Each structure stands twice: as C-alpha cells, then as structure tokens.
Amino acid sequence: MQQRRYALKAYHGIRIFLNQGNDSFKESKFIPLHGAGKVLVEDFDQDGKLDLACSAYFPDYTQKPLAGFVLLTNQGNLNFSAHTFPQCDAANWLLMDKGDIDGDGDVDILLGACSINNTVPEPLRKDWNKKGIGVLLLRNQLK
Q1: CB distance 107 to 100 below 8 Å
Q2: Which of 12, 56, 106, 142 stands the most exposed, by the fewest C-beta atoms within 10 Å?
Q3: How would you list the strands of the sheet with 135-138, edge to edge?
C-alpha cells in the first residue's frame, strides 16, 4: 500500500459549544487534537464533572505518545487535563464506545482499530499489523 502524505490541520480538535438560551450556542472552548473523530461525554472519574474521551484516526504520527486516544478529565470551568495510555499506541482507533463492560458499576471505554489508513507511516503500520490488535478495552479502575 502506497503511503499518502497529509497535512495536519490546525482546526482539528474538540469544540465545546454552550447553550446561551433560546437554542443559541456559543463556542466556549477549543481543544486541539489532530485528526479528532469522535468524543464520548461521561463522568468517567465520578467526580460530578463531565469528562471527554476522544479518538483520533489521523493523529500526528511524529508525536509521542500518538494521541490516537486521549482522555480529558474535567477540572472545572472548561479546564481539562489530558491523559494518554501506552497501550493506546498499539493500533489506529476508528471506533469508540462506552459502557459498563465488566459489570462493576463504572463506565469503561472500548476502542476498535482499523489498519487500512494509508497515511500511517509504513514502519508503524507494519508494527500494528504484526501485533494484530483489533479491540482494546480500557477498564475503568474506580471500582
């Protein structure tokens, strides 16, 4: 498969729009994330504030960690702390969902990989294909 090049886009990321009333929304926060594709909103740490789980199918492949998955924990007042996990660098995440997968009462995250993306650098794609990881469960450790 021939690798294609792509330019990182400064406008890629998560935009939070707050309701100003009367169905009028205003952008109140922009969090840059190259190739952002999906955001799940949930109070993952059960502190009463909504957190953001974000997947990016076209991350910056020169960045370590890759930021193909980022958990943004809400610190309040639209301030978020970004967290990545080493195991998330093992594949290119296209699908993401949430639920209490292990039945322990907290919300887990499930990631699904797709290795067809031809913008992935060849050595990285070969490594991912060799590992053969198609699904990754991020088990919430609160309970």
Answers
A1: yes
A2: 142
A3: 93-99, 108-113, 135-138
| Three-state secondary structure string covering 16-65 | EEEECCCCCEEEEEEEECCCEEEEEEECCCCCCCCEEEEEECCCCCCCCC
Confidence (pTM): 0.89
Residue 135, SS3? strand
Span 80-120, pLDDT tens digits: 999 999 999 889 899 999 999 999 999 999 999 987 777 88
39 confidence band (pLDDT: 50, 70, 90): very high
Between CA 108 and CA 106 the distance in angstroms is 7
- DSSP code for 5: P
